[in-house]
Structures are given as C-alpha cells and as structure tokens.
Amino acid sequence: LRLRCQKCGYETPEELHFCLNCGASLIARNRYDLTLKDFAYAADLDAIQTIRTTGALAYLLKQLTVGDVDRKMASELSLAAQAVAYPSDLDAIVRDCACSLSIERLPEVYIAKSPQPNAFTFGSEEHAYLVMNSGILRALTKNELMAVIAHELGHVKSGHMMYHTIAELLGGGISFSASLVGLDMLSIPISLALLAWRRESEVTGDRASLLAVNNIDVLASLLSKLASGSSTAHPFSHGTEADVGIMDSVGELFRTHPLEVHRFKRAREFWRSQEFLRARRKIQRRQQVLRALVPDCRFCGRDKRVEDLFCPNCGKSQI
Ligand SMILES: [Zn+2]
Ligand SMILES: [Zn+2]
Ligand SMILES: [Zn+2]
Hints:
- The chain is α+β, with helices and mostly antiparallel strands.
- The protein has 13 helices and 6 strands.
- The protein has helices spanning 36-39, 42-52, 55-62, 65-80, 89-100, 134-139, 142-158, 161-170, 188-213, 216-232, 246-249, 260-271, 274-289; strands at 2-4, 11-13, 81-83, 108-112, 119-123, 128-133.
- The strands form 2 sheets. The protein has a 4-stranded mixed β-sheet, sandwiched between helices. A two-stranded antiparallel sheet has the order 1-2.
- Helix 5 (89-100) crosses helix 7 (142-158), helix 7 crosses helix 9 (188-213) and helix 9 crosses helix 12 (260-271).
- One zinc ion (ZN) is lined by residues 5, 7-8, 10, 19, 21-22, 24.
C-alpha cells in the first residue's frame, strides 16, 4: 500500500513512514505520538523557555542572522558532503528512530568526509539537517549509530537547533566573527545562560537515545568511545583554524557535551525512572497500532477517524 503525502502529494510505500519526496511523516497526528513532555529533561525545557522570552535574543533572531549561518552551512554541506541515499542501511536507521520518536519531518541527512567521529544537527524543525562525519560511521556499531541518530533527532524534536547554532557561535566553535552576526548584542549573563543550557540540552538528547535503542549498555559504550576519542581528536588539533572546514569546527559531540561520566549518570537515572517506562510503553503501543493510524479504511476505503482501530463502515480490524 502506498500512502499519499498530505504536504506534497507524493505517494510512498506505507512501511517507510515518511514521504520519500519531502520527508513529512505519513502517520497522521494521534494520541499515541511521543511528545516532548513524555521525555524532555525538565531543566532543558525551563531554560529554553527563559531563553525564548529574553528580549535581546528575540531582537537578534529578528535580524535573521541565524538563518544566514544556516544557509552558509547548508551550501557548504552541498559541496563537502554526500546526501544519504534511499534505500540504504543508514536511511533505514534514520526512519526507524524518527518513527520511534514521532518526528514530524525527517531531516536531510549528510555524510561529511572527515576522520573526526562527530555528528550534529542544524537548521529549523521544519527543515533540519543531520550531518555525520565518515569517521563516526567507521568508529561505531550499528546500535551505537542508532543511539547517535536518535540523540540528534531528540534535538530536532526539541527545537534546539537554532539555540545550538547561537551557542556554537558564542563558544567560538564556528569560525565566523560573533560580532558579524550580531552576537555582541547579547549581554554576558544571557550568553552564560545559553552556554549552560547547551549542556542541559544534551540530557534530552541522551534520553531520546535510550527511548529509541532501549538499551543502556549501548549508550554506555557510545559514551566511552566518545570519551576516549575526545582527548586525541580535538576539532582544532590540526592546522590553523582557516584550514578546518565547518564540519570539523562544530563540536556537537565533543566540546559542548558535559563530561561523559555526568551524562551517563543522568541517562541512567532516566533509564530507571517511571517516566522512561511510560514513554517506552507509549512507543510500543504506537508501533502496534501504526497500520491503523490512517484516515481511511484499508479494506473499503471509506473515511474513518485516525485513531479508529476498526472501520466504522465495514467493521474490519485495521491492524
Ligand atoms: Zn511529501
Ligand atoms: Zn547533542
Ligand atoms: Zn472499511
């Protein structure tokens, strides 16, 4: 069965869950969808709320400077990186994670040629980019890769990317002048709040990893690989800053993440919590009824409510 995309009209085999043309979810919104409330780290949600209501930042965002940075990165990406093709193992992992986390639109996924084992997201929730360096594909197992991808999708779902970009600029991670994009407008307390939040936001990302992979050992091995890699593979360890491409200068997994030990402690707390169990149950339930979550009956074709598991017209089970 092929499902017609509500956004662009393209028809995609239903088992792919996301439009092959525009990436929009083919599963109509429903009460089984995982929401941020189900798993986001409370300190992250609070901090982002504070940052959002800060006057200077709102002014800055109006200047669309972040959009300029995103455009610059996207155009560099098209030169320096390769889009992940469908069908491929990597594409399947991304769809799988995005389905577990109830993402509304798949990000564009790219592989950048670089030995640094790194991954990051940028853009907006409506149009996100997920970039993985070739180094990370070599260094990780399939499950660890899934954990990385789910972590990044957790950022996408949380709408973190724009604030990440600003925090990267403030931290000097990107070789643009901060004053050029107007970041000198920000007062020091706001800058510090942003940099502090940047680390909190990782807790939410790691929670998304746990929910998608459902295995704490995978996160443990991933974090220990990152910890051992970070001492030798600093983004600026070779050549001058000018020699380093934008892909290496964004230190998503290395520089700005809290020490791996602390990350793991926080992740383990979530793993053992009722909140985790509830969210996992929700994911499993949605998986079980996924085939039913369509607006028309798969047998008689008549309209039905998205959450009807039986057709009100012909009475057949949709699952
Ligand atoms: Zn579409
Ligand atoms: Zn992250
Ligand atoms: Zn029917």
